[in-house]
Amino acid sequence: MEAVELKLRTEQxxxxxxxxxxxxxxxxxxxxPGCCEHYLLxxxxxxxxxxxELDLVAERDGRIVGNVVSLRAVLHGDDGxxxxxxxxGPISVLPECQRQGIGxxxxxxxxxxxxxxxxxxxxxxxRES
Length: 129
Known about the structure:
This protein is of the alpha+beta class and 129 residues long. The chain is built from three helices and four strands.
């Protein structure tokens, strides 16, 4: 059997409906009857904390089979310190494509891109100083 290439790329607005369907299928009846993760994904895109550069899809044979998104967050410590963080998820893979490493590849690529993005932001801050 020939291995099918998996393409990871940034999600485009034209992908939204298909990606939301992937997310719905991935979570449907998983933790409770039905699911709301696809709606959460829809709402997250309008958040100022949404990071579009880290909104990735996995595509196989021209079909979206997985998705991962990230949001900026701030963790407030008990000692009064704040720490910037990046939240990850939902991470969605079509049920028939699960357990093939697609989610892991999406997470790994997100980590790579987040490091690159962090470095670009740090350099820009240094130039401003």
